Structure formats: structure tokens, C-alpha cells
Amino acid sequence: MSISSSRNIPTIIRSSVLQAIIVAVFAGFLLSFVYTFVYNYQQKRLHVQQLGEMLANSASTPDGANLVARQVSILLDNDPFLQSILFYSTDQPIDSLSQGNIDSVSNNWYSAWFADTVSFNYPVTSRYLTGSSIQRANSSQRLATASPINVKDMSISTTPLAARNTLVGYINITLDMTQLRWYWVRVNLWSWLATTILGVIFIWYILRKLNWPTKDIIELAKVCEIAANNPELKQLPTIQQRFEFEELIRIKKSFIILFERLRVAQQDYLNLADFERQLRNKDLSLDMQRSNFQNMITHELKTSLNAITGGLQLLDNQYLNDEQKDTLAIIHKGSHHLELTLEQIIQLNRIEKGQMVVSLSEFNPLKVIANLIEKFEPTARQKNLELISRTHHAEYTLEGDISKIEQILTTLIDNAIKFTHTGQVIIDSQLTHFNESIRWQVKIIDTGIGISTSYLEDIFTPFFQVDSSDTRENEGVGIGLSVVKQIGQLLGAAVEVESELGVGSKFTVTMPLRHKRHTQQEDLLKGINIVYYHHDEVSSMVDVLRRLGADVNSQRNGQSMMDYISKVKVNVIMFAEEVLPEQVAQLTKYIRKRETTCRALLVYWYPLHKERYVESFEYDLKAAGVDYCHSTVQDPKLLTVLLKKWLT
Questions:
Q1: Do 252 and 259 form a contact (C-beta atoms < 8 A)?
Q2: Helix (H, G, I), strand (E, B) or coil at 476
Q3: pLDDT value at residue 470
């Protein structure tokens, strides 16, 4: 499909007006030419009719022959449009030459325009015909059709035969239409030329007048083009308007107003972007400070708690009386609770940083339920609660992160026993088989105090407490369910709750697992030498990489890492999420300078919560030599796919 080229408004206006004027002038000339010539022809026909009547009257007199002859001679000499004047002798009327037919032919515009000649016939009658003349006319009629003769041959007797008129013949006058048309053209040529010149002048004036607004439109279009091609334009050029057209003035004002609004909006956008950049830097700084503070406080608390635990263990071997043993038991309980709470906070912090990954191992769900029943049965017996296990499946071998699964179930069962004063706690286990996986659903049902429906959406929020009095009574800080939710999401499990205040609660954990026959992992990263640089004491990423078959060297010191890669051929160098981007850029520059024979793939894993700030450091890192910046990957399959893609 062809695309027509763009045209501007002034060109369209001028061409359209010019075409309309040309068509109008042509039509006017054509109509005037046709009308005036037909009118001239009609006037000439009237003149010929008068001549015919005059000749017919002259021919009907006694001496009409000589008179008509002189008149015809004068007419033919003075009127060039008369081709011939003839007389037809006959004493019978000719039907085809009736006056009606004559008039219809003479009024036909086609004859006037395209006929070479036009003939007019007028009857000649007389009361002065002799017998011989009549006999001659009758014999002529009987011999043949009437033949034309010159009027000079016509003889009319001076003796009257009767009182009535007698048809003698017809006078035929023929007009030369070609001569008439050429004469009419020559006569009207100068008037046509004058009219044409005036029309051209008129057209030029109209086009010149139409050019006034087009000049202003072109000027306005130039300014629009300048504004469109210069995004950084701060000031709109002056719009020259030579003619004050109201519509163009409105367009000009609207354009200026829109440009000013756009400039103000652009300035607001720049201010907003600058403010957002400041907030981003501030948030990034706060995140780093919060992370450092959490690492520091958990480390300090962990160290102090270890000292307290060690001292308590030394006191266990001393000879103490009953009162001292009770005091020591209270301290042990508080220490254990503090250690559990601190461990939950550390876990929550690691999950937020993306440092916790899934470690798969084989387990038996029946054995897991049995171990949980054995663990919590003494506590339930102390509160006179009935701990019931309901399993709807046989013995099975599954694969999953058993430590995290046990932590989820332990927290939920502990909460159920803690907030249930009478009744029972039920552990309901059920397996559902699919084509490629198995869904393990565990329900923890209690008859405890229950939770109001208004709080159900908030109980998984860190440090949320439904009732501070219950928390003080049961020693809870509101972080256990948050850890359960986060670990469940890490495992791909769904944690749902149904509860009614004063009746009890039901927590349902649905975990997608795999059967043993689907758990055999190949050495997907076998033969790949990876250096993993990190600061934390424990890195789960190292375990995942090693489980996938990679040869992983863990480094926590920059100099030792540089010494190692200078001696060993390394395929991939990874920087952990806790390493600051500035330090990564500095180490990358050193690595790239020392590379000689082969080039290692450099990857920086940043925490998930910093994904919205990736633009603030990704460009600098890639400029320094980092190949890829990616959020921390927790799924071994996805990690394998990424490394295979980056290494090819």
C-alpha cells in the first residue's frame, strides 16, 4: 500500500482555491460562450425571417420579379452570412417545410453550433397569376418535385384571375453558420481577452490574500518544529504574526501556555527525580545501617548469651540447695527463651537479606510427626491437654528441607499448646499425589483462646501482638508466626489460618514436595571452579553450589582471594549480597588488571530488598568489570540455569 507524502496547509489551500477558480472561470466562459452565441444566432434568425417576409411580399406584387432581384443582389452583397437566396416554384404546399418545422429546426442549439448551413423557407403567394403561369407551374409539379430556380425566371401576369391568393412557390434563404461563428469569435475575442486578464488578476489577488494567514501558519509551524526538536529548550522563540487573525492568535496563546505548562512540569519532574534520588540514597544508607546494626547487635547478644549459657553449665556441676536450683532453672528458662527469640530474629534478618536457601534431604513424614508428638507430649501432659495425631497416609519417603519444615511445625504446635488451657491439640497429616510432585498438608487444630477475625491478617506481621496480657503470660514477642510465614514462602508452602475467638484455631500448612525417585540430582555444575567472596560466617550459597557439583572456594579476605585466583584458573567469581557495591567495584578493578590468559565471569548478588535501588550501583559495577548483577537466587534450578546461560 503506497503512503502519500505529507502536504502542508498553505499548499492545500492555494491549490484548492486555484482549482475552484479555474473550474468556475472555465464553466463561466463556456456557459457565456454558449449562451451569447445562441442568442446571436436567434437574433440573426429573426433578421433572416424579416428578410424572407420582405422578399415574399415583394415577389407577390405584379412587378415583383425585378424588385426581388434587386433586393436579393443587395442582400447577398452586403450580408456575408447569406450563402444563397433561391426560389422554388410550386402551386402545392410542401408539408416538410411547414412553419412549425422551420421554427423547430431554427431554434435547435445543435444546428446553431455544429451545422455548416441552416436554411429558411418562406411561401410566396399572389392574386395576379396568368393561366399560362398556373399551367406551367402545374406541369412542373406533375413532372417532378419542385426544383429551385432563380427569382428572375418567375413570371407573374398583371391580369387578376381570382380574388384569392395562389401559392406560387417558396423563397429559400441559406445561412453560412461557419462564417457566422468565426465572425462572432473575432468580434468577441478582445472582450474575452480582457475578461481573462481581469480573471487572472482576480485570481492573483485572491491567492495573495490567502497567503496572509498561510505565512503566519508557516511561522507558527517553524516554532513548533524548533520546540519539538529541542527537548532542552528553556525559552520559546518569538512567534512573528504579521496579520492579526483571531484564530491564529488563539492557537499562538494556547501553544505558549502549553509550552509553559510543559516547562513547569519538566522542572517539577526534575525536582521530583532529584528528591527521589535523595530518598533512594537515604533509604539505601538506612538499609545498610540497619543491616550493620542488626548484625552487630545480634553478634553482641549472641556473645553475651553464650557467656551466660556457659556460666550456667558450670553451675550445673555445683552442689546447690533446692532454692538455688529453682533460681538456676528460672535463669535457664529465660536464657533458653532469649536464645530462641534471638535465633528467630537472626533468621528473619537472613530471610530479608536473601541469605537463607533451601537444603534438600530425604525424610519420612510419619517419623517427623512421631518426633513432634514425642517432643511436645510432656508439655501437653503438664497442662492436662490431649495431644492427638491423625495421619491419613502410609509410610512414605519424600525430599525437602526437613529442618525448616520441622521449625514451622514446631512453632505452630508450640503456639497451639501455649494458648490452649483446656481441651486438645490435633496434628492432622495428609498426602495428595500428583504427576510430578506430592502435596503434604498438615493441620494444627486446637481448642484454645482463638483469634478475632479482625486480627487474622496481622498475626504474621513481625512483633505483632493480639493482646499484651496474653503475651506477657505466655512469654511471646510476636515474631514466631512471621518467621513461619517467611520460611513457608521460601519453601513454596502456603500457611493459612482459621480461628474463632473463644473456640480455637486451625493452622494449615500445605507444602509441595517431591518423591524420592524425582530427587536424584546430576552434577549440573561439575567442572566449574567458583570463588565465593563473602563476609558472613556462614553462607548457604556455598552449600548450594557444592551440592550442584561446582568446585567452590570460599573467601572472606580480599588479599587472600587475589592470591588464590593468581594461582588457580577460576571460571566464576561471586560477590555475596552483604559485600558493599563500592568494595565490589574496587576488587573487580584489581581482578581485571591482573587477568592475563583467561577472563573470569564476575557476578554480584544483591539482596532482594535492594532490587529497587539496583540502578544506583549497577552502572558503576559494570563499568568496573562486573558482568552480571542479579538478586540473590534461592532456587538451585534457577541458579543452575543462570550460570549455564552466563557461561555460554
A1: no
A2: coil
A3: 47
DSSP track, 5-35: PP--HHHHHHHHHHHHHHHHHHHHHHHHHHH
Q: DSSP character for 144?
A: S
Q: Which of 351, 357, 358, 404 is nearest to 607 (CA)?
A: 351
**Three-class HEC string of 398-459:** EEECHHHHHHHHHHHHHHHHHCCCCCEEEEEEEEEECCCCEEEEEEEEECCCCCCHHHCCCC
Place of cell 465572425: 183
The beta-strand segments (E) located in 62-155 are: 82-89, 117-126, 148-149
The predicted pLDDT at position 538 comes to: 62
SS3 for 180-234 is: HHHHHHHHHHHHHHHHHHHHHHHHHHHHHHHHHHHHHHHHHHHHHHHHHHCCCCC
Contact yes or no for 450/456 (Cβ under 8 A): no
Q: Of the spans 172-176, 191-195, 291-295, 315-319, which averages the highest pLDDT?
A: 172-176
Q: What is the mean pLDDT of residues 152-158?
A: 41
- Checking if the pLDDT of 338 tops 70, the result is yes
pLDDT at 393 over 70: yes
Q: How many CB atoms lie within 10 A of CB 178?
A: 13
140 has a pLDDT exceeding 50: no
CB 525 within 8 A of CB 548: yes
Rounded Cα distance, 318 and 337, in Å? 23
Mean pLDDT for the chain overall: 76
- Please report, for residues 373, 405, 445, the alpha-carbon distance to residue 30 in angstroms, rounded to integers and kept in the order given: 113, 101, 104
Pair type for strands 424-433 and 398-400? unpaired
Edge-first strand listing for the sheet containing 117-126: 117-126, 166-176, 82-89, 148-149
* Lowest-pLDDT choice from 29-38, 59-68, 472-481: 472-481
Please tell me what DSSP assigns to residue 611. G
Residue 351's H or E segment, with its range, is helix 322-353
What cell does 430 get? Answer: 495428609
Q: What is the pLDDT of residues 547-583, one digit of tens each?
A: 777 888 888 888 888 888 888 889 999 998 888 888 8
If you ran DSSP here, which 8-state letter would residue 244 be given? -
- How much is the average pLDDT of 83-99? 65
Between CA 205 and CA 640 the distance in angstroms is 81
Distance CA 392, CA 500 (A): 26
d(Cα 320, Cα 356) in Å, to the nearest integer? 43
Contact indicator for 509, 441 with CB cutoff of 8 Å: yes
CB-based contact 341:414 (threshold 8 Å):
no
* Residue 625 Ramachandran class (φ > 0 left, ψ -120 to 50 alpha, else beta): left
pLDDT reported for residue 75: 83
Q: Which of 513, 531, 524, 519 is nearest to 600 (CA)?
A: 531
Which 8-state DSSP code applies to residue 505?
A: E
Per residue in 278-314, pLDDT tens? 777 776 666 666 666 666 766 667 777 777 777 777 7
